[in-house]
Amino acid sequence: MELTIVTMRFDAADPARLLGVLSKYVVMTRMQPGCRNIDLCASATRPGRYLLIQKWESADAQRAHFDSPAMVAMATACAGLLASAPDIDLWDGPSAHDLA
Questions:
Q1: Which residues lie closer than 8 Å to 35 by C-beta, 6 or more apart?
Q2: Using one digit for the tens of pLDDT, what is the confidence trace for 5-40?
Q3: What is the CATH number for 73?
Q4: Is there a domain that residue 97 lies in?
Q5: Residue 96 covered by a domain
Q6: Count of H helices and E strands in the chain?
Q7: HSE of 4, CA atoms in CB hemisphere, 13 A
Q8: Which domain holds residue 66?
Q9: Would residue 98 count as lying in a domain?
Q10: Is residue 84 part of a domain?
Q11: 44-81 burial, b if ≥16 CB within 10 A, otherwise e?
Q12: Where are the beta strands (DSSP E) in the chain?
């Protein structure tokens, strides 16, 4: 099985408002075709830092999502709420079977 993982780290200039934007994005993304899971985490050591961890059935599903209305709405809503540009990374998801 193919699995694509995306992480998105956000450092907030306005934590309360950013958390609202990211929470809505998580709910909308869970309904997207090919989304296997998405988690929103808050840093225990850096106040105002949030991490989204997304798992997608395929690279095609992930790429389609990045052009989706949910992603565009989240990016637009983040205007003025971030201390810096988000850090976005794409990961392969090997299974334990792949490592044997």
A1: 29, 54, 55, 56, 57, 61, 65
A2: 999 999 999 999 999 999 999 999 999 999 999 999
A3: 3.30.70.100
A4: no
A5: no
A6: 4, 4
A7: 16
A8: 4-91
A9: no
A10: yes
A11: eeeebbbbbebbbeeeebbeebeeeebbeebeebbeeb
A12: 4-11, 35-42, 49-56, 87-92
**Pair of tokens at residue 50:** 């949030």
Q: Which two tokens stand for residue 61?
A: 């599903």
User: Phi-psi category of 70—alpha, beta or left, where left has phi over 0 and alpha has psi -120 to 50?
Assistant: alpha
The pLDDT tens digits of the residues spanning 56-100 come to 999 999 999 999 999 999 999 999 999 999 999 999 866 655 555
**Helix (H), strand (E), coil (C) string for 77-89:** HCCCCECCCCEEE
Sequence-ordered list of residues with C-beta below 8 angstroms from that of 92, at least 6 positions apart, any chain? 3, 4, 5
- Per-residue CA distances from 72 to 25, 64, 95, 99 (Å): 10, 12, 31, 36
